[in-house]
Write a structure and sequence with these properties.
The complex is a heterodimer of chains A (374) and B (246).
Chain A: H1 2-17, H2 19-39, E1 47-53, H3 58-69, E2 73-76, H4 88-96, E3 102-106, H5 110-117, E4 123-126, H6 131-153, H7 173-204, H8 206-212, H9 217-245, H10 255-277, H11 283-300, H12 313-319, H13 323-337, H14 345-372
Parallel strand pairs in A: 1-2, 1-3
Antiparallel strand pairs in A: 3-4
Helix pairs in contact in A: 1-9, 2-7, 2-9, 7-9, 7-10, 7-11, 7-13, 9-10, 10-11, 10-13, 10-14, 13-14
Chain B: E1 8-17, E2 20-30, E3 35-39, H1 46-54, E4 61-66, E5 69-70, H2 75-79, E6 82-85, H3 97-107, H4 112-125, H5 128-131, H6 140-152, E7 158-162, H7 170-185, E8 189-194, E9 205-210, E10 213-218, H8 220-227, H9 232-242
Parallel strand pairs in B: 3-8, 3-9, 6-7, 7-8
Antiparallel strand pairs in B: 1-2, 1-4, 4-5, 9-10
Helix pairs in contact in B: 3-6
The chains are: A mainly alpha (374), B alpha/beta (246).
Chain lengths: 374, 246
């Protein structure tokens, strides 16, 4: 126990006295969450649209007004460079140059056909180069046109829909992304802490003195892991507080439950870091390997951005081996839905399994590496 | 009557790094209580050999016996007998000298009272104020003293010092060798690698290694007489030249 205590004390001194470690632990996550929190978003705050109104009737103007009345639409009906109605060629040019997301073509007989047949054609061309935006534009169009049709027919909507969105009433994508970001960043920082710590010992040669000492490999790993568990938990807490008070993300569930699961998640991350460090001769290699093995799978395969169900079967299978897959569900559940411990028995169990597997693999590889040089 | 077992017995020791042969089947022995100087230019194979003796580097072929025990079979037991000071001193730069000593004492399993009494010995050699400075802020001479002290914390019987005097001033070197003599008087066995040829005079015997091969071995005076050389530097130059420079 005394030997492990000696390592723990030494690691704490190193963390607290190294400005680079402190920056990495407490500043980097906040900068990342700040930048990514604002840049990764499904929200669409502005849709620039053009209308080619060939009808120039009262009804066509009503339709244009319906679009313009929506807070996200900015509608233009005139060509900036030439007088008169916007031409098809000019609208296509605006779409190609990315000045607008869609253009609407109101045919010349729009009013007449509506009056005569109660139905008219309407052309809409959407920029499909960004599928997310195209889908959102399509949904906004549908809603506006449904309301317009109901108002024009004079019967009103058949169904009076009263939709309530639980957990995120304003449907802010930050509510979805920021807890996920917290999970991704926590895994990266945890793995980085141990991988760099061991790689640094290797670079400076001090690992030789640890290897030649009576220390057992598991004592080195336990001694190196315990201080970083505390540091990473503190880091997680700082990230959560930042999310709460800067981005206004509510924490509806128990912080204690979240920290309990975070503990398992951090152990998995720290073990992954040790595993990486056994193959990394320098700190630079350790940092690159850690970034690649934590950020990429956690961002792409864990459900952080894309739903796991939409992944190919092979990638779905891989996602089960990623700790972020489980912690993402937990953190989103606890933070947004106020879910409790018993709701995450499977995820918690999987985190325990992954932590134990990674810890055992790290200890085994570290031990084998130590023996390989002897 | 049986002959005494050497403290370090190296037999046909070789180390390959891929196709490069760093140590080429060398054999030598260090008797208990001896100071043996391991001399050679940079890249001669001194550090590689010492690392194989300590068990830090895997042996390609040959054997290392420590007090008659094979270091590949009895490493845990052998570790208790060995003290090792690495070329770079390998102390933790952000820790003070005292904290480094406490750390290495802690991982060696020294009891707190034992560690305290050892630390009081260190305070006699280095001013307490200096001991409270971070290792990155002290002179190479102090770093060397701390590194040697750390190496001796578990009270090892056999001490391997890898270039302990590189980068330190002549006064610190002189002081260092007086410490080494003190250790010899206490019956310790020492293998000291160096590329400072003038340090050969402090050794009971010297081994000159070049390109992974031993090119001369014996008592300094006897070697000078035998080879009819005026000084160690001449002996060293002729020895490595006669084996060809790469």
């Amino acid at each position: 126990m005394g030997r492990i205590k000696a390592i723990i004390v030494k690691e704490f001194f190193h963390i607290l006295r190294d400005p680079r470690s402190l920056t990495m632990v407490f500043i980097t996550p906040l900068v990342m969450i700040f930048i990514l929190g604002y840049s990764i978003s499904y929200d669409l705050n502005r849709i620039d649209a053009a209308v080619i109104d060939l009808s120039q009737s009262r009804l066509s103007r009503e339709l244009v007004k319906a679009f313009a009345a929506n807070r996200v639409f900015v509608v233009q009906t005139r060509d900036e460079n030439s007088p008169g109605t916007l031409s098809l060629a000019a609208a296509e040019d605006l779409l190609r140059r990315g000045k607008i997301k869609e253009f609407i073509i109101i045919p010349a007989d729009f009013s007449r056909r509506l009056a005569a047949h109660g139905q008219s054609d309407l052309g809409i061309v959407i920029d499909g180069s960004d599928t997310n935006v195209a889908n959102l534009v399509y949904q906004y169009n549908e809603r506006i046109l449904l309301e317009f049709t109901a108002a024009m027919s004079g019967v009103g909507p058949l169904l009076k829909i009263d939709t309530k969105i639980y957990f995120n009433p304003e449907v802010r994508s930050q509510f979805f992304f920021i807890p996920g970001l917290a999970a991704v960043i926590l895994l990266m920082i945890s793995a980085m802490l141990t991988s760099l710590s061991i790689a640094k010992e290797r670079e400076t040669g001090s690992i030789a003195l640890l290897f030649i000492s009576p220390l057992k490999s598991r004592e080195i790993i336990v001694g190196k892991t315990i201080p970083y568990i505390i540091v990473a938990l503190l880091d997680g807490l700082v990230i959560l507080l930042f999310a709460r008070f800067w981005f206004g993300i509510p924490i509806r569930g128990s912080l204690a439950v979240l920290l309990l699961f975070a503990l398992l998640y951090i152990i998995a991350g720290l073990s992954l870091g040790i595993l990486i460090s056994t193959s990394a001769p320098t700190q630079r290699v350790a940092m690159l390997a850690t970034l690649l093995s934590t950020m990429l799978p956690s961002m792409l395969l864990s459900g952080f951005i894309f739903p796991i169900d939409s992944l190919s079967p092979v990638l779905q299978a891989i996602s089960y081996a990623i700790p972020a897959t489980y912690f993402l569900r937990i953190i989103r559940g606890v933070i947004l839905k106020g879910a409790e411990l018993q709701h995450f028995l499977f995820e918690g169990g999987m985190l325990i399994v992954l932590s134990l597997v990674l810890l055992a693999a790290a200890t085994r590889k570290f031990n084998r590496q130590r023996k390989a040089v002897q | 009557m049986t002959a005494a077992v050497p403290a370090i017995d190296v037999r046909d020791l070789a180390k390959n790094f891929g196709h490069f042969q760093a140590v080429k089947g060398i054999s030598f022995a260090v008797e208990t209580g001896e100071i043996v100087g391991f001399l050679g230019p940079n890249g001669a194979g001194k550090t590689t050999t010492i690392k194989m003796i300590t068990g830090l580097l895997k042996i390609t072929s040959g054997t290392v016996l420590i007090n008659g025990l094979d270091n590949r079979k009895h490493l845990a037991l052998i570790k208790k007998k060995l003290g090792y000071m690495s070329q770079k001193f390998s102390l933790y730069p952000l820790l003070t000298a005292l904290e480094n000593i406490e750390f290495f004492g802690g991982i060696s399993g020294l009891a707190p009272h034992e560690l305290r009494s050892r630390m009081s010995l260190m305070a006699e050699k280095v001013a307490p104020a200096v001991l409270k400075q971070k290792i990155q802020d002290v002179s190479p001479g102090i770093r060397q003293k701390v590194a040697l002290f750390v190496c001796l914390l578990p009270d090892p019987e056999i001490i391997l010092l890898d270039e302990p005097t590189s980068g330190v001033d002549p006064e610190a070197r002189r002081h260092f060798w007086s410490e080494i003599y003190g250790l010899k008087k206490r019956g310790k066995t020492l293998l000291v690698s160096t590329h400072n040829l003038d340090e050969a005079e402090y050794c009971d015997r010297i081994i000159i290694i070049h390109n992974g091969e031993i090119v001369a071995c014996g008592e300094p005076e006897a070697l000078l007489r035998q080879e009819r050389k005026a000084n160690i530097e001449q002996l060293f130059q002729d020895a490595i030249q006669s084996h060809g420079q790469d």
